[in-house]
Design brief:
Elements lengths: L1 H35 L4 H4 L14 H8 L7 H32 L5 H10 L5 H14 L6 H5 L6 H11 L4 H9 L4 H9 L4 H16 L3 H6 L8 H10 L5 H29 L2 H4 L3
Helix pairs in contact: 3-14, 4-8, 4-11, 5-8, 11-14, 13-14
Length: 283
């Protein structure tokens, strides 16, 4: 008995040691980013790195907002990222839920084949279709516009997969009762399916928003003016300029991280319960 308890204690210690080490590895870059944003460049480049700033150098945040050229284009780039990520998240959640509902609850010939073909698109890397998409965008004359930034990402296969896996175990009795009460299919979707799919919706919304917030390749192709660029492009431009202010660059990264953090904290209770949907729900 004592041997079993001793082995269990050792296992618990090893697990906790591993979790603490993993947390340190994950949090170290975040702590570095935040502390460096409050230091002048000369302190950031010191070895060993001073993890606690001597003085809070708030000028870095002002420099990040105004830019090295003093154009104050960063707030506009933040707005662009909010518009693109917000619209894409809303459309992805709504259209993926609608498609997933149809694939989960409406038996029709070829349903599994349609689902398989949708899943097959997940195997195609974006880099393989990036140039064809750009050619289509230029032929439609939607480059350097919000439509060009948003249109290719209105829905994705992962969102359909996630919503279908969640809804496939949704009780059919509830849907049938709503039909008996005279509700139409779209009314059932809006009033019953969506409100009861909060974990899946929150998970999909967070993942989609983060993906678009961090999207670099497509805006790099489609956005030609500084006014239409997004946050990742601004940070890349800031980092590649001849006289780079490392502290201001870290301040820009901190500002860019805040919306994602706020979104996660706001939806965390749904996200935690919905993050394992694809493994816990079988379709």
């Amino acid at each position: 008995m004592k041997t079993i308890k001793k082995q269990s204690f050792i296992v618990d210690v090893l697990i906790w040691a591993f979790l603490i080490l993993t947390a340190i590895v994950i949090l170290a870059p975040i702590v570095f980013m935040f502390t460096a944003s409050l230091m002048p460049s000369r302190d950031i480049l010191k070895m060993p790195y001073p993890w606690i700033p001597k003085d809070l150098y708030w000028q870095n945040y002002w420099q990040a907002l105004r830019g090295n050229d003093g154009s104050f284009i960063f707030p506009r780039n933040i707005l662009n990222s909010f518009i693109v990520a917000g619209v894409v998240s809303i459309s992805t959640v709504f259209l993926s839920a609608l498609t997933g509902y149809g694939l989960a609850k409406f038996p029709f010939r070829g349903r599994n084949l349609v689902f398989l073909l949708i899943m097959a698109t997940m195997m195609i890397p974006f880099e393989a279709i990036m140039i064809p998409l750009y050619l289509v965008a230029t032929s439609l004359k939607i480059q350097n516009s919000y439509i060009g930034l948003i249109l290719p990402f209105l829905m994705n296969a992962f969102g359909i997969f996630l919503m279908r896996q969640y809804l496939i175990t949704f009780p059919d009795e509830i849907i049938d009762a709503a039909r008996i009460d005279g509700s139409g299919e779209f009314s059932i979707f809006l009033r019953i399916i969506l409100p009861n799919s909060a974990p899946a919706i929150a998970t999909l919304a967070i993942l989609t928003f983060r993906t678009q917030w961090d999207n670099l390749l497509w805006p790099l192709l489609i956005s030609q003016s500084e006014e239409m660029k997004t946050i990742p492009l601004y940070i890349v431009k800031f980092a590649t300029e001849k006289h780079t202010n490392e502290g201001a660059m870290m301040a820009a990264a901190v500002i860019a991280s805040i919306p994602i953090l706020v979104l996660f904290l706001a939806l965390s209770r749904y996200f935690v319960s919905g993050a394992s949907l694809h493994s816990s729900r079988k379709g």
